[in-house]
Specification:
- The protein has 127 residues and is α+β, with helices and mostly antiparallel strands.
- Strands 1, 2, 3, 4, 5, 6, 7, 8 and 9 form a 9-stranded mixed β-sheet that branches.
- A hairpin with a 7-residue loop joins strand 3 and strand 4.
- It starts with a strand and ends with a strand.
Length: 127
């Protein structure tokens, strides 16, 4: 058995700087910037929690700008296998920590380790 749930949304920004993107989305969503450079690599800016405690980040990327969702799981590999059974496919393992995947519809999303267990809705338990 493992558990998973919607973690939140990543705003992938292919244009401008991370700081510019974070300021725009912070103001647009009326969510303060919680961490302007998570991890110190110039790639991720974390906004305060969104509605329902959803995790929101601005991410500097090398591909066209888009928004993607993250699914978090207490067992990433088990969740990836479950999603593959539904027709998703693995694209890339990032830092041996999470998977970029593609849905049968062509949408990219990530499966990430679960965090903040009590901040969001209860996860679904999968057998």
């Amino acid at each position: 058995m493992h558990r998973s749930r919607l973690a939140g949304f990543m705003i992938d920004c292919g244009q401008g700087t991370l700081a510019e993107a974070a300021v725009f989305w912070s103001r647009a969503l009326d969510l303060p910037i919680a961490d302007p450079d998570e991890g110190g690599r110039g790639r991720y800016a974390v906004l305060d929690a969104g509605p329902g405690g959803l995790h929101l980040e601005v991410q500097k990327v090398d591909h066209p700008s888009r928004v993607h969702l993250d699914i978090e799981a207490d067992d990433v590999e088990a969740e990836v296998l479950r999603l593959e059974e539904l027709g998703a496919r693995r694209i890339e393992c990032v830092r041996e920590r999470f998977w970029v995947m593609e849905a049968p519809t062509g949408h990219r999303f990530c499966v990430v380790p679960m965090r903040d267990l009590d901040r969001r809705a209860a996860p679904t338990a999968w057998v």
